């Protein structure tokens, strides 16, 4: 839930999603759901010469389970807020 | 059995006490990360900053005897990174040395 | 929500867990992101020859096999001469 909320705050920011097939896709985060499925707009695939498969694709839906990493815009992430929220969430789920 | 004064009763407590500290993360696919831990959840999804990733690439040389392989190491840095928990093998707190 | 509704009746590219790329018109989907494509074709990439399109017709893809669904810009897609494209097939997802 916490991570889902973080992604929601990053809507309309630029992120880079690296998949478990080594494909890296940069785009504008349009939406995310509870499974961390991600919708990206204005996408660009890293190393398009080697991966021309998505040349004509402008926006896409990525299944959360195939994501390895998402590079986030650091200036839009409040790390103190994250740490506090993480502590609160772990305290709440413990009981 | 009272471990409460150390604050550690279950495995996730070790990660909780590493918040805002630099941690070492071992991942599937011969990958390792170090970075400052800012968030995690029960799936071991992580958010790290100031991340350095190390990928071990093992090249098996054709015709070379068994066990003779060259290991190449690729490194890269990322400012702020979400790591999906299903790839995480271990999270290690900062070394106290 | 990162739903698939916007893709219905649009020409899409599906990338599957085993690395296959399939294009078709999304006829429908369900809660598990199972997808029905009409007029679908598999695009087979290789370094030796141009992209080969294999007609599949009406096709049901199980949701858990899907890596990514991308909306195809039809004009951009038609502008690409597939016979000139040389690329390795996408690698399969490795967990």
Task: Explain what the structure shows.
The complex is a heterotrimer of chains A (95), B (97) and C (95). Chain A has 95 residues and is of the alpha+beta class. Helices cover 25% and strands 36% of the residues of chain A. Chain A has helices spanning 2-9, 79-94; strands spanning 14-19, 24-32, 38-45, 57-62, 67-71. Chain A is elongated, with a radius of gyration of 15 Å. The model of chain A has no long low-confidence stretch (mean pLDDT 95). With 97 residues, chain B is mostly beta strands. Helix content of chain B is 6%, strand content 53%. The mean pLDDT of chain B is 88. With 95 residues, chain C is mainly beta. Chain C contains one helix and five strands, in the order βββββα. Chain C is globular and about 40 Å long. Classes of the chains: A alpha+beta (95), B mainly beta (97), C mainly beta (95). Chains A and C meet through strand 2, strand 3 and strand 4 of A and strand 5 and helix 1 of C.
Keywords summarizing the entry:
heterotrimer; A: 95 residues; alpha+beta; SH3 type barrels; five-stranded antiparallel β-sheet; 2 helices; 25% helix; B: 97 residues; mainly beta; 1 helix; elongated
How helix-rich are the residues of chain B, as a percent range? under 10%
Based on helices, strands and strand pairing, what is the structural class of chain B?
A: mainly beta
Overall 3D form of chain C: globular
Q: Quick one: biggest sheet of chain C?
A: 5 strands, antiparallel
Q: Examine the secondary-structure arrangement and name the CATH architecture of chain C.
A: Roll
**Total strand count of chain B, please?**
5
What is the mean predicted local confidence, pLDDT of chain C? Answer: 94
Spatial strand arrangement across the major sheet of chain B: 4-3-2-1-5
Biggest sheet: strand arrangement of chain C:
4-3-2-1-5
In percent terms, what proportion of residues of chain B is strand?
Answer: over 45%
Structural class of chain C: mainly beta
**How many domains in all of chain C?**
1
Protein name (chain C): LSM2-LSM8 complex subunit LSM8
InterPro entries (chain C): Lsm8, LSM_dom_sf, PTHR15588, Sm, Sm_dom_euk/arc
Family (chain C): Belongs to the snRNP Sm proteins family.
Keywords (chain C): mRNA processing, mRNA splicing, Nucleus, Ribonucleoprotein, RNA-binding, Spliceosome
């Amino acid at each position: 839930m916490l991570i889902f909320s973080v992604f929601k705050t990053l809507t309309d920011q630029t992120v880079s999603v690296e998949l478990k097939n080594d494909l890296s896709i940069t785009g504008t985060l349009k939406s995310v759901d509870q499974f961390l499925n991600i919708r990206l707009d204005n996408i660009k695939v890293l190393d398009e010469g080697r991966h021309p498969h998505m040349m004509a694709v402008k926006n896409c839906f990525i299944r959360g389970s195939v994501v390895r990493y998402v590079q986030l815009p650091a200036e839009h992430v409040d790390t103190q807020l994250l740490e506090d929220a993480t502590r609160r969430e772990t305290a709440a789920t413990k009981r | 059995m009272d471990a409460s004064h150390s604050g550690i009763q279950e495995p996730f407590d070790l990660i909780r006490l590493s918040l805002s500290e630099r941690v070492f993360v071992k991942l599937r696919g011969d990958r390792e990360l170090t970075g400052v831990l800012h968030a995690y959840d029960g799936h071991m999804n992580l958010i790290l900053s100031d991340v350095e990733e190390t990928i071990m690439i093992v090249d098996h040389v054709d015709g070379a005897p068994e066990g003779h392989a060259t290991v190449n190491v690729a490194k890269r840095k990322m400012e702020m990174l979400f790591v999906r928990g299903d790839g995480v093998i271990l999270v290690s707190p900062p070394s106290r040395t | 929500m990162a739903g698939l509704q916007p893709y219905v009746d649009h020409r899409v590219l599906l990338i599957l867990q085993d690395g296959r790329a399939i294009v078709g018109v999304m006829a429908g989907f369900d809660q598990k992101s199972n997808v029905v494509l009409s007029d679908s074709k598999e695009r087979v990439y290789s370094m030796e020859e141009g992209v080969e399109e294999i007609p599949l017709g009406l096709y049901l893809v199980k949701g858990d096999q899907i890596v990514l669904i991308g909306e195809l810009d039809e004009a951009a897609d038609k502008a690409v001469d597939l016979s000139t494209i040389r690329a390795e097939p996408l690698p399969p997802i490795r967990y």
